[in-house]
Amino acid sequence: MYTTLNLEVGADGVAVVTIDVPGSTANVMTPAFRADLAAVIDRVGSDAGVVGAVITSAKADFMAGGDLKAMVEQFSAPLTKDEAFRIATLMSPLLRKLETSGKPFVAAINGPAMGGGLELALACHARVALDSPQVRLALPEVTLGLIPGAGGSQRLPRLIGVQKALPLLLKGTVLGVRQAEELGLVDNVAGADLVKVARSMVAAANPVQPWDRKGYQVPGGAGFFDVDLGAAYNLTATSIAKDTARNYPAPIALLTVVARGVMLPMDAALHLESCHFAKLVLDPVARNMVRTSFVSKGELDKLARRPRDIPPGKLSQVGVIGAGLMGGGVAQVCAAAGLEVRLVDATLEQAAAGKQRLADVYAKLVQRGRMAQDKVDGILARIVPTADYAQLSGCGLVVEAVFENREVKSQVFRKLQEVLAPDAIIASNTSSLPITGLAEGVSHPERFIGLHFFSPVDRMPLVEVVTGALTAERTLAHALDFIKLLRKTPIVVKDSRGFFTTRVISAYLTESMGMLAEGVKPALIDNAAKLAGMPIGPLSLVDELTIELGYNAMNQEKADLGEAWRAPPGYPVQHKFVAELDRKGRRYGKGFYDYIDGRKTLWPGLDAVYPPAPEQPAVDELKRRMLYIQSLEAARCFEEGVIADPAEGDVGSVLGIAFPAYTGGVFSLIDTVGIRTFVEQCEQLADRYGERYRPSAWLKARAARGEPFYPAASAA
Ligand code: NAI
Fold first, then answer.
1. Which of 555, 554, 520 is nearest to 538 (CA)?
2. CA distances in angstroms from 534 to 231, 239, 464, listed in the order given
3. Of the residues 3, 40, 273, 471, which has the fewest C-beta atoms closer than 10 A?
């Protein structure tokens, strides 16, 4: 009679409810599951022969929570307030019914309990978790632009106190079993006898939740006027404002429902939570974040772009050429993923120095207790530094990360060809040189591909996979398998100057440097970017990368394109700072900023070089320019076929170049503004600031048809 769970009543009168939602590896909250749960609650509540229930799962996870893919579809339809409220109350009243059914429910948490899964467990009258590193508990909704919608924002603070609950809710902190026990999220920890322990807890569990008992007080207090709590609320509000520049509605909603909700009786508190959840459902930020940061990313992680029917290759040993910043990082992530690595540099000393830098970083992590010595030893033992190419003969794939210079790279490729097996793949980590051109010098261009990692390699989750004109499908398939092994997210882009991410971020950086020459105050430029949601201002970022890096790339482009080259707005500024003022960036101690004794301050001479205009532009205008110039460049990439799917462009922009997550990425931003409005506003910017803002005929035609980058979902 149930399709998503199994119910068995034992001789002790305890009903064991085992969740097993079909059609998915994880248990997600589908309509069928909600119907089954409702029936279970009725049965347990009304059957005099049932004393209470244990809820557990047949899958490796306890419950993963909401069906996010379905949610994105729901949220993409034009919804009325009533429909949003209906969505917000699909689960919450059901869990309220569970906790007020008069019979005790005990959650036997056998695997990860995330989001709605943990909310289900919190609605139970007691919880026991399996003592396993696989078991993780979190309410990560805020990180997806939402808040817990099934009572989590109310039950967690009532259970463990507001002060402990708030940071967990705001950050979506993932807890292990022991931490969860310490904090009071679970009452008990058990081994293989988990269900047995849960069964025995049923008899002792009070079927009335603490918050429904007379005289209940929230642990640590609940009122605004409670001195400690009032201060915590104020501090939290301040840090939210600082961290999010009010671009993210979810943390504000969360703070509101916690602060107000804990002072209300439970039913009213749950209603408040539902109202705020509904408001977030109507806000495009939640849809954009769930779609890009979760659904699209998840599909790319599963290698949605891998050519089918090509069997996986066997890869146990890889080579990395260049033991510098990027090569060292690539060697590190490969070794951490269990691959044997040959790390090559011009001399053995340089290769060994590259490995030593990794060893130093790991030593600090061990010292701080963040990594175990034996794990580090294992990783480092897999990295063999050498200058001898013959040592690469067993490598199935080699990543080249030497200087960004065509000639140096060509020499490396020639040497590699001599030693590698006929089916080995050569991958270049170039950040800008077209792959087809680089492949010209190799004898097997079909086995050549671009794998553009980002810095720092161990932390940046994206890899831009660049196919040249002659790259074979098999090479692409095996390169993607390699990226998956490294647990990174790949996007596949067609070869072009700057590929996708470098093109998009360069448009933004050159625009921002151009603003300086227009007379916009430098502090205003950097602050406007942060208010738009960028983690760091563009002038600071260029200083970090060095002004020289972009300047050299521009000069290379100028040489390559000849007559056709047009100087972008930032070029004269780069020229002035590198060639005339010798202020090349942070590494040199001076750029747009001064770096003296570790202190960073704007260079006082800037005003004399680029005098600020008497009238400064509005912050909103600067924010719009910085975001739109990137979305426009992305649209050009799509038009030219550099990027095949807006979802990939969105994931690439958020994960690779820190385009603000609340927008959902460069393409979602256009859809959120509305493609017609976006094109109109770009036309106005083009009239004011230059033709680079002029939308192409293709984009205008798309806007005239009202065709978004994501097909609009029909009403639910
Ligand atoms: P780096 O200067 O830190 O390292 C380059 C390494 O290559 C040095 O250790 C050098 O000794 C070695 N090398 C030079 N010629 C060699 C040869 N003939 N044989 C063997 N080793 C040789 O440079 P970085 O930053 O690691 O960049 C490497 C590549 O990665 C470049 O193509 C760059 O464009 C690309 N890249 C850099 C990013 C960054 O943020 N730095 C991001 C993405 C790509």
1. 520
2. 29, 16, 21
3. 3
- The residue whose CB lies within 8 Å of the most ligand 1 atoms, and thus the one to mutate among 403, 409, 457, 500, is 403
Q: Are residues 507 and 365 in the same domain?
A: no
Question: Does residue 434 lie within any of the structural domains?
Answer: yes
Decide: 516 in ligand 1 pocket, CB within 6 A. no
How far is residue 182's CA from residue 190's CA, in Å, rounded to a whole number?
14
What pLDDT sits at residue 713?
56
The set of residues, in sequence order, having a beta carbon less than 8 Å from that of 681 and lying 6+ positions away, is 624, 628, 673
Ligand 1 site, residue 192, Cβ cutoff 6 A = no
Mutate to test the pocket of ligand 1, among 325, 399, 503 (most ligand atoms within 8 A of CB): 325
What separation in Å is there between the alpha carbon of 453 and the centre of ligand 1?
12
Closest C-alpha to 336, from 488, 480, 234, 196: 488
Domain identity same for 486 and 506: no
- Please give the residue range of the domain that contains residue 137: 5-282
CB of 438 shorter than 6 A to ligand 1: no
Confidence of residue 280 (pLDDT cuts 50, 70, 90): very high
Is 401 touching ligand 1 by the criterion CB < 6 Å? Answer: yes
- Alpha helices for 562-674 (secondary structure H): 571-575, 606-609, 619-639, 646-657, 666-673
Q: Could you tell me which residues come within 8 angstroms of residue 411 by beta carbon, excluding any fewer than 6 positions away? A: none
pLDDT tens, residue by residue, 368-382: 999 999 999 999 999
Cis bond before residue 456 (omega within 30° of 0): yes
> Are 660 and 697 in a shared domain?
yes
Contacts of residue 302, Cβ cutoff 8 Å, sequence gap at least 6 = none
Domain boundary among 556, 582, 609: 609
CB of 321 closer than 6 A to ligand 1?
yes
Contact 244, 233 (CB under 8 A): no
Distance CA 384, CA 447 (A): 24
Dihedrals φ, ψ of 530, to 5°? -65, -35
| Ligand 1 pocket test target in 431, 509, 548 with most atoms within 8 Å of CB | 431
Contact 624, 678 (CB under 8 A): no
Three-state DSSP class for residue 428:
strand
Segment 111-142, tens digit of pLDDT: 999 999 999 999 999 999 999 999 999 999 99
Sort 402 into a burial class: Cβ within 10 Å, 0-12 / 13-18 / 19+: buried
379-417 tens-digit pLDDT? 999 999 999 999 999 999 999 999 988 899 999 999 999
